[in-house]
Every structure is written in C-alpha cells, then in structure tokens.
Amino acid sequence: MREVWIPSPHYSTSRGPYNKIVLHTTEGAMKIRDLGAWFQNPGAQCSSHHGADNYERGVFGAYVYENYSAWTQGNANGYCLSLEMCAYASWTRSTWLNDKAVLLDNAAEWVRYCVDKYGIPWTVLNDYQAQDPNVRGICEHVNFGSWGSGHHDCGTGFPMDVVIDKAKSGGGGTAPATGGILMTAATTFDGNDREWSACVWTDGKINFLAPGAQAWAACDPTQNPNSVRSGADIAYSPGNDTLVITYVNSSGDVCTYRRPASGGSNWSWSSKKGDAK
Fold this sequence. Notes:
Helix content is 17%, strand content 30%.
C-alpha cells in the first residue's frame, strides 16, 4: 500500500477505538489527487483517511492521520477508518464489476490493510450494528442512517461481497511496484531558497533529498525497516535555521527528525509520544 500524502485541515485530534471500516463514494472527484485538493479547500469541511481511484493500482490518497478522526460520517467519525472511493453511488453492479476492476482491487487492499493492522473482524455490519459505536466490523456509509449524516453511498449496486472476498484472499492481488518511494510527502525551501524534500522509502524508512543531490538518502540508516505508519512532512523554521521532518511511526507516536539547513549533516530524532491506540 503506497500513499500520496495530501493533508486535509478538516479533522479532530480526538477519536474513539478503531471499531469500523467504512467505504464511501465521492460523488464527484474521480482521482485521488483531485479529491485531496477538495479536502484541502477551507470550505469543504470534510475529509477521509484515505482515497482510492480506478487509475492507480495500489496507490492511495492519504488525507488524515489514522490516529485522528476524519470528517466523513457524522456522529460515527470517532469510531471509523474511512476510504473514499472515487465513484458514484448510482453505478450498477455491472459497472463496478466490468469497468472498475482497479478501484475494487484498491478497495479490497485497503480493507485488508485495516483488518490486519487493527484486528477488526470481517463481519459485514447491518444498519443496527453499524449504528452501535461498540460493534466492530465493515460497512458502507449508508448503514449509519441519520447518525452518520443520512448519506446513501456506496449505492445498491456496490459489490461489497466481491470486495470482501478479494480482501480475504489477499487484498486485491499484488499491486505493481513503481519507483522507490513508498509514500510521497512534502517539499520545503530553506532561508536561501534551496529545495529540500522528504518521503518514506520502500524499506519503510524516512529519506530526504538535499539541495542539488542526485539521490535520496536515509535520515538515519539505523532506523528500523517498516517503522513508519504515515508521513512524512517537512518544514523549515527560519528562526533557528532548522529543518523538521514529521511522521507517525508504527506505534502511533508522532516523531521528528531535525537538522540545521546550513552546517551539520546529522539528523536528530525525537518522539512526541502521541500514541494513537
């Protein structure tokens, strides 16, 4: 699962337990980057943890950290992990099965990711179960009724049975490998207008690209592989000429790497202990 980090300002830092995996349809945006641009709109007042489309297999928009509540299912937000599929609830089952294979595989991969990561059962919830905050399982936005803002997605034609079967059998198959970046992140400019970038590499470590460099390098070669849950963001503080890379590790802690933009070459690491469990 590879993420394109497009942070949305619309979220709540508090949340309840990870009880529900919820599928949605966008009813508009057809690509994860367009969806991310909408979620960044100050007037949108909505968001999702992830997004998936029918164009990029195995690539997901990442808009809100999983340890926060995304704004997409009303009163249920604090209990849910949400995926916005770039789709319409009006699509028929035939359209989904014949024309949206990539999107279905992406949805299945995301469901499997959530099940494996948070131990959520494979139970497909009915309306009554979905509207009980304490019941754990998988559902669609429509199952929440008025408690979840009264939406009707993913529609009567959505093949939830196919998604679940694909997820159980391995998460939609193997996505094609592309490049060396596991999750794209961010770019910033220092006081001399030099460009710095940060990302999560395929080994699950934080990498950076210094001004003028021809290759990415690990901030800390001793960092444990696959230790990053989400990120990474990079920012420059002109007051102390410091670069700061921020990410969430696999334990749910907010972590940083810091170094001077000019002078020195080592990144110092610290954990903010923002445990998400």
